[in-house]
Design brief:
The chain is of the alpha+beta class and 225 residues long. The protein folds into 2 domains: 6-44 and 149-212, no CATH class; 51-147, no CATH class. It has 6 helices and 9 strands; from the N terminus they run H-H-E-E-E-E-H-E-E-E-E-E-H-H-H. A 4-stranded antiparallel beta sheet has the order 1-9-3-4, with no helix packed on it.
Amino acid sequence: MANMTADDFVNWARADVGGPSTTQVTDARILRLVNQSYILNVCAVYPLRELDASTSITTASGTAEYTLSVSDVLRITAIEDQTNYLNITPFEIDRRHYHSLVQGNASGTTGQPTHWFISGVGTSNRPQITFYPTPAGTYNIGVFHQKKPDEIVQSPTATTTILPYQWDDVIHQFTVSKLWRTLGDLAKYRAIKGEALELAQAALVASARSDLVAMALPGFDLDMG
C-alpha cells in the first residue's frame, strides 16, 4: 500500500516549490491540496480496484426515485437489474429526457426499469436514482460505484492513502502543480500537471488487473524520463 504519509506529502510539496514559509502557505492549505489531488484528481478519475464497492436497491411498485443506502459515492460505474439479469448502465438519461418520456403519459410509464439517472441528493448526502419506467413491482437493482476514501490527516497520527504506493508520486505531482498555481506561477503549474498525468498513466497500468495490462500497454506512454 501507500508509503507516503500526509506529513510526507506536505513537507515534500513545500520543498519542491522552494520552501515557502508557513506564513505564506500553511500546512493546512497544502494538506487541502493533497486531499484534492488524492480524491478529485486520482480517485474520482481512474478505475481503481481499491475503491470498488456496491450497494443495492429494492424497488417498490409505483415508486420511481430511491435514495442509496451509502453516502461515500464518488461515481456510479454500473447499474444492473439483477432480478432480470439486465445491465442498464448504458441507458443513463438526464432529467430533461426523463420529463419528456413521462410527460402526458403517467398511466403508461410503469413496468420493468430500463433507464435511470442521478436525480438528486438525499439525507446524509446520499445520491438519489430515478428509474424509468417507474417500477411496476419488486426488482433487485445492483448499484456499483467507486467510493470516496477518507481524507488523510497529519501528525500526531499521520495517515496514508488506501492506494498502492505507485500512486504516491501521482498525488505528489498533482499537489505540487496546485501549489505552484497557489503561488502564482501558472507555467510551472501546467508543466507539473502534465508530468502528473504521465505518471498517472503508468500507475494505472501497474494497478490494472493482469488480464487488462496487455490491452492497456499500447495506449500508454511508459517513458518515465
